[in-house]
């Protein structure tokens, strides 16, 4: 077969072009740090990387959700801690005010103390987070959950459903309890009333019972009035005990969920690290082998240039084919 100058020239040019493309590809891998820059570089790895990137995005989304959940639960935990402190002070005041030897002035002083504690509790029940949303209002977080009338009676008007958050693919948890769950509910083992009537579940009503009783003068009262006042104070004492147990139950749930979030986060971090490693194995370049390949391809390209230059000086290129 007769070889023409044009054929040899084209063959040499294709060789140079291929060497140059291969060298540039290695350079691109070095500059980007990626072995797979486009799907054509490795179709199988590219397809697996797409699926893996979706899993990474989901992992990241759940991490954000857990951050919100942790923030919300931490704020609730702080408020519940303050609530238990106020209830403890109220219990101490009620026990001290139940002494039968107190004067009417002393009883009035305790009534003032309990009124102040009730107002503190009301403020905590209507507390907001950093975004102005009411913590204990459920999904009605744009309005105060508790309202108080002129007589001091407090009622709950917040949402009936606690706020929940999906914090992992298989876990949804309550991130903010409703005010009714915290301030107007009882545990299953609540202390019953001696006469068999329903136990008071509204902590504000319990405090008002004690306040109203202490405001009533007993210096010149008959035995029946004094007995009724003592019964009211005893009821208030039971009510505060029941309310405290209920708040402690909610507080325990919040603490358990915060601990669970820590465990889920630790597991998620391991998953994220594993995903990052898999992604790196799929698309990242091995710098040692890539540098070696780059150097060799550069040498091959230079050799191609030299061969082409040498052959172009041969007489075959100067003759007509």
TrEMBL record:
Signal peptide start and end residues: none
Keyword Chaperone belongs to the record: no
Cellular localisation: Bacterial flagellum; Secreted
UniProt keyword annotations, A-Z: Bacterial flagellum, Cell projection, Cilium, Flagellum, Secreted
SUPFAM superfamilies per record: Phase 1 flagellin
Domain Flagellin N-terminal: 4-140
InterPro entries xrefs: Flagell_FlgL (IPR013384), Flagellin (IPR001492), Flagellin_N (IPR001029)
Gene3D superfamilies for this protein: f41 fragment of flagellin, N-terminal domain
Entry similarity comment: Belongs to the bacterial flagellin family.
Stored NCBIfam families: flagell_flgL
Protein name: Flagellar hook-associated protein FlgL
Organism: Erwinia aeris
